[in-house]
């Protein structure tokens, strides 16, 4: 979670704790993709418990309580905080921190096998969260999340810098399972 922010008070049209304003006024303190928002009164009462009609309370806009929506024409004064995904690179200036990419599944075992190689993943996902020189790779079955090393299959490539390839011709069974992969990258390389 971020610190609590209280940028406005209910005077004027209401209490406006909008994400766009919070970002502008607190550069670098709010991650790019928050996953949760919490709004409480300054005394700590959750917004849902105050009985007030809340105009906005979501990850896209932030929190807004408008005085005009209240029977007594006055909102409480709220503060908000945001939760950021773990391993996000946006939480500070530590460029040596590592993050995990999202999981990718670009291929299935039909054809010659399951090809989750890094060069294809990068070229097929421009603007994604992959980096050119990953330091970790993690592969697991697409259904069931079984780690690749525990499936007993032989892999043609299982390398952070090359990616993951399972060839059907290398298996006793004649076919690979379907795998998904994710990579560990240094924040400094992404940014
Ligand atoms: Ca406030
Ligand atoms: Ca295939
Ligand atoms: Ca796959």
Descriptive notes:
This protein folds into two domains: 14-85, no CATH class; 98-190, no CATH class. It has a three-stranded antiparallel β-sheet with strand order 1-4-3. The chain has a three-stranded antiparallel β-sheet with strand order 6-11-8. A three-stranded antiparallel β-sheet has the order 7-10-9. It has helices at residues 19-25, 118-124, 187-190; strands spanning 14-18, 34-41, 56-58, 62-66, 78-84, 98-100, 113-117, 136-141, 157-159, 163-167, 179-186. The protein is built from three helices and eleven strands; from the N terminus they run βαββββββαββββα. A hairpin with a 3-residue loop joins β9 and β10. The chain is mainly β. It binds calcium ion (3 copies). One calcium ion binds at residues 6, 8-9, 15, 17, 77-79.
Keywords:
191 residues; mainly beta; 2 domains; 3-stranded antiparallel β-sheet; 3 helices; 11 strands; 9% helix; elongated; binds calcium ion
Secondary-structure map:
Layout: E1 14-18, H1 19-25, E2 34-41, E3 56-58, E4 62-66, E5 78-84, E6 98-100, E7 113-117, H2 118-124, E8 136-141, E9 157-159, E10 163-167, E11 179-186, H3 187-190
One calcium ion binds next to strand 7.
């Amino acid at each position: 979670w971020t610190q609590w922010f209280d940028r406005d008070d209910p005077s004027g049209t209401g209490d406006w704790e909008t994400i766009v304003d919070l970002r502008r006024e607190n550069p670098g303190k709010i991650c790019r993709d928050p996953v949760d928002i919490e709004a409480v009164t300054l005394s700590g009462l959750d917004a849902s418990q105050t009985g007030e009609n809340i105009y906005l309370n979501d990850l896209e806009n932030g929190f807004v309580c408008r005085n005009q929506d209240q029977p007594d024409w006055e909102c409480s004064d709220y503060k908000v905080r945001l939760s950021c995904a773990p391993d996000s690179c946006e939480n500070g200036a530590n460029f040596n921190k590592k993050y995990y990419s999202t999981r990718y599944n670009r291929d299935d075992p039909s054809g010659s096998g399951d090809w989750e190689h890094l060069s294809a993943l990068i070229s097929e996902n421009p603007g994604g969260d992959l980096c050119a020189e990953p330091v970790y790779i993690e592969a697991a079955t697409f259904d069931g999340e079984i780690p690749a090393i525990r499936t007993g299959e032989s892999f043609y490539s299982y390398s952070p810098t090359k990616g993951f390839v399972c060839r059907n011709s290398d298996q006793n069974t004649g076919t690979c399972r379907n795998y998904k992969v994710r990579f560990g990258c240094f924040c400094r390389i992404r940014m």
